Amino acid sequence: xxxxxxxxxxxxxxxxxxxxxxxxxxxxxxxxxxxxxxxxxxxxxxxxxxxxxxxxxxxxxxxxxxxxxxxxxxxxxxxxxxxxxxxxxxxxxxxxxxxxxxxxxxxxxxxxxxxxxxxxxxxxxxxxxxxxxxxxxxxxxxxxxxxxxxxxxxxxxxxxxxxxxxxxxxxxxxxxxxxxxxxxxxxxxxxxxxxxxxxxxxxxxxxxxxxxxxxxxxxxxxxxxxxxxxxxxxxxxxxxxxxxxxxxxxxxxxxxxxxxxxxxxxxxxxxxxxxxxxxxxxxxxxxxxxxxxxxxxxxxxxxxxxxxxxxxxxxxxxxxxxxxxxxxxxxxxxxxxxxxxxxxxxxxxxxxxxxxxxxxxxxxxxxxxxxxxxxxxxxxxxxxxxxxxxxxxxxxxxxxxxxxxxxxxxxxxxxxxxxxxxxxxx
Length: 426
Ligand code: HSE
Prior knowledge:
It is a single chain. By secondary structure, the protein is an alpha/beta fold. The chain has three domains: about 5-130, Rossmann fold; about 140-300, Dihydrodipicolinate Reductase, domain 2; about 345-425, ACT domain (Alpha-Beta Plaits). It has helices at about 15-25, 25-35, 50-55, 65-70, 85-95, 105-125, 140-145, 160-175, 175-185, 195-200, 200-215, 235-245, 305-320, 360-370, 400-410; strands spanning about 5-10, 35-45, 75-80, 100-105, 125-130, 150-160, 225, 245-255, 260-270, 280-290, 295-300, 340, 345-355, 375-385, 385-395, 395-400, 415-425. The longest helix has 18 residues, at about 105-125. The structure holds L-homoserine.
């Protein structure tokens, strides 16, 4: 027999509207395939014009979150408001009323997951967030329900579409960061205030969630090393090309025995790596598990329809489950005892150093690297008026040894200036 499931949506913006569209347009399709008769009974948003623009009847508009929480018919509430408050308060209200919540809110999950999961358990409700990471790409369900047989060794991804759009534009058209950002804003990829995307916050929220699921322990967002793309120049991109690399903002999570690395930073990706060809606003996540080996998930990481697709998949999932799904690790906000976040990771590095053009300068730089156990793989030199730019590609080295080399290079001569430091994927 078909099951009637009443849904509410809090936040009718782009993604909330997309969710409504899928639930109504594909209503009969989901009824036929899943035996679930979805009905969006209530929506919550102050903007009546926007609600009407999605064809939502005004009779469905709730006057307060309490109206939804007190509605006994509604069993699933979608949250597409974004931000921490008031989304957190509203979600907690719904969970305590026993309603399962489906959210796309990565900032909220990354910062308050333990408290929200505890509230969900208290209310006997589910908390689902497939749409919080990588838009329409079903990476969360894959980690939770398809890769359980594996120790996940690494997750390496392009998980922010805005920065990928900007870097792709800089790479393909040789434009500056400022011009690429302006265009991304005009096209609606980047927000008016782009900080969350371009400074890597958005990617660090997603990496915290994905690596917690992959490594079966809380990986607090505060432990994610974060560097954005605002300092990347046309010269870095040109040097990368000369050396056979494409620059990407990567989110990297690795686990080796009890050591975990979690970091978000611009990275030179070898041009023959599958991630190098992920361009524009697309996202991709490259996962390696001990038995499955390499996997790549690719698709649209944002937008009404892809993100709506992920939300509705959670809505269907919540409607079909007899018991809510909770994390398979102790979700108390702390890293499991014995696991260490390794901030002194090993990587190959690209460095460009502005120096005076004089005999012995290159040798002096080389000797600094040697004294810190950093081995050089390639050197490029570009002469200039009154000085030179020397670019180094190192073999694998420790982050601390690179940082010490940078400090010493700048100390030994006032004219030495390390212009760029980009980690290299190997
Ligand atoms: N702002 C995000 C991005 C989309 O640019 O990928 C939503 O997570």
